[in-house]
Amino acid sequence: MGLVQREIEAAGFSTISLSMIPELTASAGAPRIAAIEHPFGMTLGRPGDAAGQMAVFRTTLQAMEAMAEPGGVVHLPFEWTSTEKLALGPPVAPPIARYLARHPWALPRFLNRTPPPVSGG
Amino acid sequence: MMAKKVDSYRFLHGIEKRVLKRWAGLPGESQIPWTPLATPLSKCTVSLVSSAGIALKTDHPFDPEIERRDPWFADPSYRVVPRTARTGDIQVCHLHINPTFAEQDLNSVLPAERLDELAEMGEIGAGAPSHYSYMGYTLRPDRLLGESIPGIVRQLRAEHVDVVVLVPV
Questions:
Q1: Contact B43, B114 (CB under 8 A)
Q2: I need a surface site. Which of A19, B83, B134, B169 has the fewest CB within 10 A?
Q3: Residues A28, B133: Cα–Cα separation, whole Å
Q4: Which residues touch B81 (CB under 8 Å, ≥6 apart)?
């Protein structure tokens, strides 16, 4: 998301990412980040929780107005307190997980984000 | 207010946690682009970009087979999600998350209704007519950045957008 954000900012728009992994988004050189400690797939909040979603979204926009320096990160004050066991992962393991289980020697490529050259079409 | 520090890895475990910590430590870009906020938010037109792979059910669907054939690369295309789209109008294509929450309430990942409510209350100028989505996982971002983002940027300009909020999943 950080790379996409950079392109849009460079094209002349003021941008902010609402990131659950702010360390990763920041490492990509994102211009502005609002950090949120929410589970994956629920960036704004739970389904049906309009008030919670609004609080997160409004705070994100307000954070943006206060940022004057490239690379700013604001940590939003929301706490995810539920101890409910949620199925946060995909229903089926992603293709890269299955690929690496069969090709464990490719793990360093994955860790270094250096995919193999594209083969054929 | 207590100063909160977000734990980037709270909801990650095992190999995923190891991989994302590693990625966060890789050398990145030193120059950060910057477009200052030119007008107060109460006068800004705001658009949303989601990496959840959201498409209208009436639109051409994202192709998950691209990533199943080449696990380093996802469908690099994007879809326009009109501001009027509601949960029942969309489907989610993303092989790294549980799509259930977004399919129960689009606003959990693309807060189009919350945005329109802020516009009605005068806290922002307007919600843009269009929002955008793409499939957020790829280790080969060239086509996403080189083909899809320019298309999004053209439409953002045509709709006089000032502010873009990006929402990863």
A1: no
A2: B83
A3: 19
A4: B48, B50, B54, B55, B56, B90, B110, B112, B130, B131, B132, B133
B8 CB burial (10 A radius; 0-12, 13-18, 19+) = buried
| Mean pLDDT along residues A95-116 | 95
Percentage above 90 pLDDT, chain B: 92
Domain ranges of chain B: 49-167
Nearest CA distance, A82 vs chain B (angstrom): 12
Tokens 């006089």 found at: B160
Give the minimum alpha-carbon distance from A80 to chain B in angstroms, rounded to a whole number: 10
* d(C-alpha B137, C-alpha B128), whole Å: 26
Percentage of chain B exceeding pLDDT 70:
99
Around A38, how many Cα atoms within 13 Å sit in the side-chain half-sphere? 27
The predicted pLDDT at position B1 comes to: 55
pTM recorded for the entire structure: 0.96
Q: Is the dihedral of CA A29, A35, A37, A39 positive or negative?
A: negative
Q: C-alpha distances in angstroms, A70 versus B8, B45, B72?
A: 20, 21, 30
Report ipTM for this prediction: 0.96
> Which of A19, A84, A100, A1 has the alpha carbon at shortest distance from B18?
A100
What chain B residue is nearest to A42 in terms of C-alpha separation?
B108
Mean pLDDT (whole number) for A77-103? 91
On the question of pLDDT at A120 being above 80, the answer is no
Q: Is A24 on the interface with B (CB under 8 A)?
A: yes
Shortest distance between the Cα of B150 and any Cα of chain A, in A, equals 9
The two structure tokens encoding residue A75: 């940590």
